[in-house]
What we know:
Blueprint: H1 2-21, E1 25-32, E2 42-45, E3 51-58, H2 64-67, E4 72-74, H3 76-87, E5 104-105, E6 114-120, E7 129-133, E8 144-149
Parallel strand pairs: 1-3, 2-8
Antiparallel strand pairs: 3-6, 4-5, 4-7, 7-8
Bound molecules: zinc ion (ZN).
Amino acid sequence: MSNGLKMWTLTLALSAGSAVALAETCELTITGNDQMQFDKSELVVGADCDKVKLTLEHVGQLPKAQMGHNWVLTKPADYQPVAMAAQGEGLDKDYIPDDDRIIAHTDLIGGGESTSVTFDVSDLSPGEEYTYFCSFPGHWVAMKGTLTVEQ
Ligand code: ZN
């Protein structure tokens, strides 16, 4: 009885301590397919998130040279110029230009693969809209959506 109580107290102390010490990492998942589509056009980050771990899953079967997908986050005004710049980058660069307008991005993946990126929510302004897209040539027009951080 007293051993059980001690264990319970210790567990409680540990979990309370870790909640204070660790930043809140929130997880988001999005998929891309062989039809050049993301499954979501909107992603919302909770107000209590300090970091976001975004996982991109390619649920198709085509190789990345043919139907590669990545997930790139920018401000809405930067989306088009960054997407245009990405066309000039090769497959070996994952179609990711060296551009500081990119807030976060994943690697480029092919069918059956998945990848993730973790970024700080402090880089984003609550209530503002951000644009995410796939920077593979020709995909950015169809494969895009809006990410917002709750206020
Ligand atoms: Zn793509």
